[in-house]
Amino acid sequence: MSTQPKPIASLSLDLDNKWSYLKTHGDAAWQSLPSYFPLLLPRVLDFLAARQLTITFFVVGQDAAMHSHAELLRAVSAAGHEIGNHSFHHEPWLHLYSEAQINNELAQTEEYLIGVTGQKPVGFRGPGYSCSEATLRVLAHRGYRYDASTLPTFIGPLARLYYFMNARLSAAEKAERSKLFGTVADGLRPLHPYKWEIPGVITTKPLVELPVTTMPLLRIPIHMSYLIYLSAHSPALALTYWRLALTFCRYSGLQPSLLLHPLDFMGKEDDADLAFFPGMAMERERKLAFVSQALAIYTRRFQVVTMQEHARHAAADPRLPLVDAQASFAHLPVAQSVPSSAVPR
């Protein structure tokens, strides 16, 4: 039997709350900040503990600012999980924000995350995979060690079209969300980790990019919500697809980074208001059984670590490529001051 250590892989969960799903969907009910955290977080923490998994939770600042969430979020940190920054207002058009606005988003979120969880985040993921040169500049200046916002796939526009067809959005709201899930150009981004070269920014440690892994060669999604969507048609086919993707990762030397979402742990009986989201027609137990199978395959093939640990490994590699941030985001509109749709706190 081989004693060669397994390659590492990371696992993270974007802790989007019910209100943020409704907000992106164009439902005004989001303004009352409805939350499923009391139902969700104990379930997720028990699920992870039963499998001895320590992961990264990317937390939205607005949720950390709510007193009703304090004990729940403290429990996440107390269980040993990493806390990352997922912006304050969870607006997938963050790439339209000015540098000053982005800095405020991150600073506000840091303040509440430190106060509630005791952890100062060193990693960031933009809502809706939103990223820009201005965002990276702010991250570097604030001492972040990694970003995890890029999704290297060609099918972002198709996902956006599907989303628009099932959302209640005005023309202005669609314009704001015009880069939701990315553009065709994102399919050309690197799959492997790299470090950012940001014009005018000099730091002692690199800002590492950990892309959300898509299938090598084909560049199609393999995050859990997508696997669940496939499993609704055929669980066996979805798991075969998953095994194939991980095989491609092993043969290409890619250390994958798998993304989870809250609705991967919730079924149709948990919240009828979220029926518009793919996979929410599935019963909870059936969904959890599938997620358990998929993660068992993942942990058999890889040593699963937090995003911070993954970034540390990547940064230690002297061959880590350097990517020009300015050229990488030249296709985006120039950042500007955009009114936030935040509700009063």
What does the model show?
The strands form 2 sheets. Strands 1, 2, 3, 8 and 9 form a 5-stranded parallel sheet that branches. Strands 4-5-7-6-10 form a 5-stranded mixed sheet. The chain has 345 residues and is of the alpha/beta class. 46% of the residues are buried. It has helices at 18-25, 37-50, 61-64, 70-78, 99-117, 133-141, 156-165, 171-176, 224-231, 235-252, 284-301, 307-315, 325-328, and strands at residues 8-15, 56-59, 82-85, 123-124, 146-147, 194-197, 208-209, 257-260, 303-305, 322-324. It is built from 13 helices and 10 strands. It has a domain at 12-211 and 307-328: Glycoside hydrolase/deacetylase (TIM Barrel). It is 39% helix and 10% strand. The termini are far apart. Helix 2 packs parallel to helix 4 (70-78).
List the SSEs and their pairings.
Blueprint: E1 8-15, H1 18-25, H2 37-50, E2 56-59, H3 61-64, H4 70-78, E3 82-85, H5 99-117, E4 123-124, H6 133-141, E5 146-147, H7 156-165, H8 171-176, E6 194-197, E7 208-209, H9 224-231, H10 235-252, E8 257-260, H11 284-301, E9 303-305, H12 307-315, E10 322-324, H13 325-328
Parallel strand pairs: 1-2, 1-8, 1-9, 2-3, 4-5, 5-7, 6-10
Antiparallel strand pairs: 6-7
